[in-house]
Each structure stands twice: as structure tokens, then as C-alpha cells.
Amino acid sequence: MHATLINRNTNEHKDVKVGFSWTEFFWGFWPALFRGDWKWLIIILLVDLAFGVFTWGGGSFFFNLIFAFFYNKLYANDLLNSGFEPADDYSYNALLAKNYIAPGRRFSNANNGYTSDSQLDQLDKLKELLDQGAITQEEYDIKKKQILGL
């Protein structure tokens, strides 16, 4: 399962896995390196080295097995705490289902790429006013942008 996170300030998108991290299990610190997740890269690398040296790699394997259950959640929470938020309802529900976020946690929904039912109702009423001649095309365009958050 995947979730898409967006940082609305920088317009940066991140696709995060939700659940067990098979890549971390098989490849150790490499997924953190490719994600640019420097904090967890260093932690995983140091623990792998510390456990692997004294156990001929067995401790490193055991650590990666256990850590694979937690890595995706830790990575996603680091992103959420640094200004990212779910990009859509599917992503929000995926994060909620796996307890990545607390129930009821709110995020801004500005420019999230989808239109709510209330926005559609407002646009329909606005279009009726335009068709009736009660407002001009310019007023319609300005109000439409306000409703859509553009």
C-alpha cells in the first residue's frame, strides 16, 4: 500500500510505502540512502556495523528483520513532522489504517487536487448567477478561483 505526501509550501511530492519494508529487510541501509533519509541511513548503518561485526552478519540480519516492521512508519512520520501531509483522501485513510497518524488529525486541504461536494455546489450556484446575468464573467472567474483555492 502506498500513500502520497505533499509539502504545500514547496509543492514537493513523496510517495511512501505503508506497512512492512521489504526493501529495508533485504537491502539494509540502501533504501534510506536512495530516499535521502540521512538520519535513518546513519542509524541503520551504525547498528548494522555494530551488530554485524561481532556476529558475522547474523546480528545485522536480525536487526534488519525487526527494523523492517518500523522503518516505513518512522520515515513517513519524519516527513509528516517536517511539513508534509496526505495529498488526498486515499493517502490519509491509508496512513490512518496503519496507525501512522492519529484519528482526527487534521491537515490543510488547500489545492489537494480534488474538489469537494460543497465546492461543486458553490460552483453550480455561481454558474446559475452568471447565466442569469446577476454577475459578470470577471466576477465569476474571481469567485471560482477563490472557491477552488487557486
TrEMBL record:
Residues 121-148 form the SHOCT domain. The chain crosses the membrane at residues 40-71. Keywords: Membrane, Transmembrane, Transmembrane helix. It comes from the Bacteria. This is SHOCT domain-containing protein. It comes from Companilactobacillus huachuanensis.
